[in-house]
Amino acid sequence: MNDFSNGSPGSVRRRPRLHRGADLLGAVCLVLVEAVVLAVVVYVVGISAWADSYEAQPTNDAGGRLVLYLAVGALVAGLLAVVLWRARAPFGAGAQLLVALLLLGFCLLGQAAESRAAAPPSGPDVTAEDGHAGGVACHGGGGDDCRHPGR
After folding, report:
1. Taking 70 as the threshold, does the pLDDT of residue 71 lie above it?
2. What are phi and psi of 121, to 5 degrees?
3. First CA to last CA distance, the chain
4. What string of H, E and C letters represents the secondary structure of 58-116?
5. CB 138 within 8 Å of CB 145
6. From residue 116, how far is each of 46, 109, 111, 112 by CA, in Å?
7. 17 forms bridges with which residues in the sheet?
8. pTM of the model
9. Tens of pLDDT, residues 79-97
């Protein structure tokens, strides 16, 4: 006879719910461990981007790597939330779901910032009014910043 039966064949007892204090303590500890892992990942990506900035041709895409790491972390936190929910630990599952949503929000913000940084400036160019047909594009308001072809 196993622990889940009450003696009659075919009857299965449900697994007991985790004690609230243990569930809450486990959730807090798990979130603290995840915060430390996130801090280490951000530190490593930041240091590698800083070191890459001193090279002649930077090849490191630190922002893209960080967004990828955050997305993987959100996926792991979501899966852990499902496992904790199935283990009848509602505080732990709720905390992991919150962590997953926060990481996905950071991913979306990071992706938006990256796409904004990669997009060309959308402001209109200032043109010089010196009688040339079509004008000359100036960046900075004129003067020495304007390059006139043929002069």
Report:
1. yes
2. -60, 140
3. 98
4. CCCCHHHHHHHHHHHHHHHHHHHHHHHHHCCCHHHHHHHHHHHHHHHHHHHHHHHHHHH
5. yes
6. 20, 11, 9, 6
7. none
8. 0.63
9. 999 999 998 899 999 999 9
Spell 21-50 as b/e; 16+ CB within 10 A means b.
eebbebbeebbeebeeebeebeeebeeebe
Please state whether 88 falls in left (phi above 0), alpha (psi between -120 and 50) or beta: left
Q: Cα-flanking dihedrals φ and ψ of residue 116, to 5°?
A: -70, -35
**137 conformational bin, left if phi > 0, alpha if psi -120 to 50, beta if neither:** beta
Q: What are phi and psi of 109, to 5 degrees?
A: -65, -45
Residue with structure tokens 């930077």?
58
Tokens of 26: 């486990």
Q: Which two tokens stand for residue 28?
A: 């807090």
- Burial tier of 52 (Cβ tally within 10 Å: 0-12, 13-18, 19+): middle
Residue at token pair 């496992």: 83
Long-range contacts: 42-46, Cβ < 8 Å, 24+?
42/66, 45/69
**What is the distance between the alpha carbons of residues 143 and 128, in angstroms, rounded to a whole number?**
9
Backbone angles phi, psi at 100, to 5 degrees: -60, -40
